[in-house]
């Protein structure tokens, strides 16, 4: 987990020592960053799993 992700976790809704404009900006930046991080991990998982799933399909086809 990157430093930025650790810094942003749980901060979408809180930034108590800042004025409301800063708090909104921080929340928006963090939620955007966390959304990008989640999408990246989904894509990473998909890249890892696709070849495995394809191998399973090939194995089943060969077995028949």
Task: Give the topology.
Elements: H1 3-8, H2 20-63
Summarize the structure.
With 64 residues, the protein is mostly helical.
Outline the structure in words.
With 64 residues, the chain is mostly helical. The chain has one domain. It has helices at residues 3-8, 20-63. The N and C termini lie far apart (43 Å).
Classify the secondary structure makeup into a structural class.
Answer: mainly alpha
Q: How many β strands by DSSP? A: 0
Distance between the termini: 43 Å
Sheet bearing the most strands, described? Answer: none
Low-pLDDT sequence parts? none
Number of domains: 1
Strand content: under 5%
Radius of gyration: 20 Å
Work out the helicity level. over 70%
Topology as a string of helices (H) and strands (E): HH
Mean pLDDT over the full residue set? 69
Number of helices: 2
The shape, in one word, is rod-shaped
